[in-house]
Amino acid sequence: MPEMPEMENYRKLLSNEIIDVPVTGVTVNREKSVNVPVEQFTAALKGARVIYVERRGKFLVFHLHNGGRLLLHLMLGGLLYYGHVDEPRPSRSTQVEITFGEHVLYFIGLRLGYLHLLSARETDEVLKDLGPELMDRRMSKERFVGILRKRRGSLKSTLVNQHVIAGIGNCYADEIAFDAGIHPASKLQNLSDEELGQLYDSAIRVLTEAVDGGGYMELPFRQGDTLTGAYNDECKVYDREGEPCVRCGTPIVKTELSGRKLFYCPQCQHEA
Question: How many CB atoms lie within 10 A of CB 234?
Fold first, then answer.
């Protein structure tokens, strides 16, 4: 599932391509991917302009010039592709296509995800229960430690809880725990303030590197794009079962925690 770095990468790329470009065409191939009748969705978007692309957690919010919003959540397997109208279409099935002049933004894999047309108030209502952003200027190490100090349960389950911290999912929770040298199944109540502070430093470091590295998406955003997905090769533990740890050479272990995949080094990460 795309997480904060993947969606932030998309936000940056989209902001360079579609801002103030009028929508000239809309195709909905799967009605369940949108929240209103297709005719209404199409009529609302044709001629509209995106004036700002915002990211909130794992969501993208397309701000329209008329005050409306498009709220995107890619869920599991969702992707975006931006191509010229004369280029070959993506090989995968697309659920929604929005044409901006000579280019088309393809929404792929929205069988679980969605693209909803909402008012500003409705969008705020959907997003109101999300936790704070780690990369927000209002976040600090002290605030982060304070938030986690009030929680109980496993480290990973807390990091992926969107009501606690927005934007982190399975991949980066494991990568952050590895960087901090803490077992992802550790109980928060057993971690010291110093360890929680180290976790904050690791989270900032990992997420920054992942954003700069284009995240781990498997499809480029557009033809010639070599950044999107490049961070997939930089993951240290996630999806690396059996591979040697980059620190000590011990094989990476895969297990499950509360139904979620969990990857860690049994030598470098000890459970608290």
Answer: 13
